[in-house]
Specification:
Blueprint lengths: L4 H36 L4 H10 L2 H9 L1 H4 L7 H23 L8 H4 L2 H4 L6 H25 L7 H12 L10 H5 L3 H6 L1 H30 L5 H22 L1 H6 L12
Amino acid sequence: MKRNHGLGARSRQQWILVMVAVGCGLSALSTSYVLLATDLELPGVAAAVVLGSWIWIPGTYSSMAVMPWLVLPGSRGPLTRLVVAVAWVAIAVAVLRLATYPYPGFDNPTAVFPESMLKPETQDIEQFVDGIDNIVEAQQRVAKMYLHDGSVADLCPPLQALVHIMAIGSWHGMGIDDPKFRAMFSRESLLASDWYQDRLRRQQRIDTALLKRHRDYVQARLDRGISNPEMRQTLEARLAWAAAESARIESPTYVESLMGTIGADPLAG
């Protein structure tokens, strides 16, 4: 009796879709339970983490690695059957790997970090000091990277000083407890700094260049000639406004009017 390959393939496709739906649903349910159980201190968190890490794989991987070969037109030869078999084996290995040695993930912090790390108050003094040392070393390493690549120059003055103190311990002779260093973080000190004033002057140059482009565009349009009197009047009025606005922006008082704004970053031009 001749087998109906079309019906067999269709049945396998349907089972793959069922696995996708069931696997994704159980994975979502496991994740939701982990979040709820962590807050309410319910049992079974570890088991839910393990289940959620692999239960979605059989259906999802099958839909990507197996189903395309099942929907190919025509009969399936030895090569197709070999590829499908290899795909099934690979999926089974992935499932067994994660089910046996699951990656804990970050849905459940206690699966990644011990309770003593999440609750410093339960640590002894040696553990606490070791944790602080790790934080300081990490911050120092990042601060030295700012010095190494020169990006420290883009920081505002108080952060420049802070990065230097974090990396090498001082900034122009000031340490972390120096009152002058701490005063750099005040609004008045930042607004008066050359770094901030340069940002305002850069913003002024950008605004000036923008208005010049607007004036040049309108003037070029007028020079080409406009037969419509109303449109010409509108463009002449815009040109007059742009000229007056340019004069305002180019004046020294414009920079003062920008005080309190963020100004323009050096990368802006």
